[in-house]
Write a structure and sequence with these properties.
About 45% of the residues lie in helices and about 15% in strands. The protein is α/β, with parallel strands linked by helices and about 350 residues long. The strands form 2 sheets. Strands 8-7-6-9-10-11 form a 6-stranded parallel β-sheet, sandwiched between helices. Strands 1-2-4-3-5 form a 5-stranded mixed β-sheet, sandwiched between helices. The structure holds nicotinamide-adenine-dinucleotide.
């Protein structure tokens, strides 16, 4: 593990196994410099144990940066349960995993991620207080997607303002890729703001319904990134921003909810060199984690959540302005800003800068 490229001086990595339930899992705590390490619990059929460890290492590091940039007093962590989500999440296995999280005394707080459901988190909550994103109870934070959509909308307006001098979206051509929980809501907000929408989703009935509801033009999902439009909003899968996209797509701005939009890290610079303004994904899609963090803090306060989500627009404007004044790619600027906040927290942050 120490020799993989994904290892980044992680504070603590725990392997979990339970013979009775068949549970095998990994909890990676990257940093608690800013507070308890908050990050999702993923259930996935990995090809090997090492692949699972590497995923937990990589994703937990990403959460350190995401939580820091969102201005949360939380560190970064992530956990993975190895196995088919259809069979690996028995009540017994989830209870055993909740006990393992509980043994960390709050240094890691888990939430729903790929392959898990809110019902799973509800069940784990009976065993440990160190999970968040439950559906019931006084502090339940509920569905994160409206908050994610709101943050992306504010980030998108900040991006348009940075590029054009005005955030008026009237008649702006915006392509929304993926009309799921976040994309659908984002598209509605953009339509209400006067944008002219292009939509794409591999789910055809959903696309047809969205187009009728939004008065949008339907575009083939493979063609949407290269369509004539002002803003591209990826809200489906990651890896959609490639070198080819950077060099040949006519679009000027990119801002969407999808995680890990850059196909490879060098695309950040390629987008900048091509004159495309990219709002870093982990900055603008932080509304969901801001919402779940409010529950992890013990007292869910909807007003404070919405105030914090609003800061996404301000931070996006700050990142884009710095990128322009220093002539640096936007992703690199966002990373530096997050790292500055972590290092300002003291010794723990210094550790992350160690070679
Ligand atoms: P979702 O599963 O509800 O929706 C995804 C949609 O994308 C579906 O309608 C699916 O049919 C479509 N899709 C899948 N592959 C596609 C393709 N190749 N081309 C076009 N459409 C395709 O997911 P969601 O919750 O709306 O999340 C969307 C993205 O935002 C994901 O990358 C997710 O990780 C990220 N994200 C979501 C949240 C949240 O609060 N839900 C928070 C942060 C980041």
């Amino acid at each position: 593990m120490f020799d993989t490229v994904d290892f980044d001086n992680h504070e603590e990595v725990v392997s979990v196994s339970c013979t009775r339930s068949g549970l095998r899992a990994v909890i990676a705590i990257h940093s608690t410099a800013l507070g308890p390490a908050l990050g999702g619990i993923r259930c996935w059929s990995y090809d090997s144990g090492m692949e699972a460890i590497r995923d937990a290492l990589r994703l937990s590091r990403g959460m350190t940066f995401k939580n820091a940039l969102a201005g949360l007093d939380l560190g970064g962590g992530k956990s993975v349960i190895l196995g088919d989500p259809k069979t690996a999440r028995s009540p017994e296995a989830l209870r055993a995993f909740a006990q393992a999280i509980d043994r960390l005394d709050g240094r890691y707080v888990g939430a729903e991620d790929v392959g898990m459901t809110v019902a799973d988190i509800d069940m784990m909550r009976d065993v440990t207080p160190h999970v968040a994103g439950t559906s019931w109870g006084a502090s339940a934070s509920g569905d994160p997607s409206p908050h994610t959509a709101e943050g992306v909308f504010l980030g998108l307006k900040a991006t348009v303002r940075a590029a054009t001098g005005s955030d008026d979206l009237t008649d702006a051509r915006i392509g929304v890729m993926g009309l799921g929980s976040v994309g659908w809501k984002l598209a509605g907000m953009l339509r209400d703001a006067g944008a002219s929408l292009l939509v794409a989703d591999i789910n055809v009935p959903r696309t047809v319904r969205a187009a009728a509801h939004l008065g949008a033009e339907i575009v083939d999902p493979l063609r949407l990134p290269f369509a004539e439009m002002d803003v591209f909003a990826p809200c489906a899968l990651g890896g959609v921003l490639t070198r080819d996209f950077a060099e040949s797509a006519p679009v000027r701005m990119i801002c969407g909810a999808a995680n890990n939009q850059l196909a490879t890290p060098d695309v950040d610079a390629a987008l900048w060199d091509a004159g495309k303004l990219y709002a870093p994904d982990y900055l603008v899609n932080a509304g969901g984690v801001i919402n779940v963090a409010a529950e992890a803090g013990g007292e869910y306060d909807a007003y404070r959540v919405s105030m914090k989500v609003r800061e996404i627009g301000e931070t996006t404007a700050q990142v884009l302005a710095t990128a322009r004044s220093e002539d640096r790619p936007t992703g690199a600027v966002a990373d530096a800003l997050a790292l500055a906040r972590i290092t300002a927290a003291g010794e723990e942050g210094e550790r992350l800068l160690a070679p």
